[in-house]
Amino acid sequence: MEVKVLQCRYCETEMKETVYANYSLRCPKCHRVLRHLSDFGFGPVTPFHICVGSEVVGIVEENSNKYQLKFRGKNIELTKTYFEAVHEGEEYVADVLGMKLASVEFPVHFGRCSLYVYGESFEAPYENDHKIKNIHFDGELLIITFKDREELFVYHPKDIVSTERELRIQCATKVSYNPYGAIGKEGTQTYQYCDGKIRKKNRGSESVLAGSESEPAVLLKKW
Fold first, then answer.
1. Residue 120: which residues within 8 A CB-CB, separation 6 or more?
2. What residue ranges do the domains of the chain occupy?
3. pLDDT per residue over 86-115, tens digit each?
4. Model confidence pTM above 0.85
5. What tens digit of pLDDT does each residue of 54-66 get?
């Protein structure tokens, strides 16, 4: 089995990752899921290894179409089958270990928008067009996923104003924009508020955004 070093894309914690045919991996620090790989739709999804960092904390196994979870020295019978049994086992483990993340409603009233981070956009004005696919907020981290595989992470958002025309987040401890290979886009760009200044990191370089302190951390304007 391959073992490699993985950095959490949410909190930057480093850990060792063991690659299995079927497995999920949670960050031991922020508890968010970093990997979820299986042969779903192509073959058996068991044994399915449920990992927290480098540790295998549970395994879902199948015998004669009956599924069970091996967890803390016990064999726990699961009520569902195939991939639903995997999810049942994962939910059980996350619940017992206190790793389930909250899901808090976050108000956004439009599905297509222009995006600005501390007054900066990532495209020319006529190309600043982002279609929102999914929004998840756990009370600490807001994740907005766009249809072109782009993601926006907003850490500890505060002073939020949401209207029919815009979403304005005035303050955040950190904002990361991840284009994930979108054509013409640069790599992950991170903005962090520190000592009264906005520090921007991109591809290993760091700069200070002068005059951006009064700009909202994130602004989505209806397209």
1. 209, 212
2. 3-96, 112-222
3. 999 999 999 999 999 988 989 899 999 999
4. no
5. 999 999 999 998 9
